[in-house]
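From the pipeline queue, job 12 of 40. The input is one protein chain; the requested action is below.

Action: predict structure.
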Amino acid sequence: MKSLNAPLTRDVVDSLVLGEIVCISGPVITGRDEMHIRALEYVREGKEVPKEIVGSVLYHCGPIMIKKGDKWIVIAAGPTTSARMNKLEPEMIRAFGIKAIVGKGGMSKEVLNAMKETGCVYLAATGGAAVSLAETLADVSGVEWEDLGMAEAMWKFKANMLGPLVVAMDSHGNSLYENVNKSLVREI
């Protein structure tokens, strides 16, 4: 397993090979539908967005959090289905220079094109491993847009070997999901 340290550079992203197993340490943010909508609205309106979005590792996750005193603790942090963000993600990638997206299920050809254009990679996390993945996100560094609700807010973590993650869509326009679809068509 290859260890990556965020923030990621274009060279690191471009070096990742389809099917490679990686883990990430360093800053990671979460974002689902509402976080994407809010961030893009802010950009369109000329409002300032949280600086952590720029060049981020963006985890499609609605973590379960509890607060003990003034400290947040993550209980579960499993990936959500990334395809829900297909319409929003190309603009997010381009607007914020997102370097990696962590999620499950893959994303559209339009997202893959934006990834290739800007140097971004999609890393597939294992569904059903929410508690194990949460253990790698033990250091909660803050939350933005808490008014969106726990699952939709942008949580900021310092990851410690988040993974294992599979390079499922690379920055060169390759996709494991497309490969599977092509092989199924050949078999029919």
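Job complete. The longest helix spans residues 33-44.
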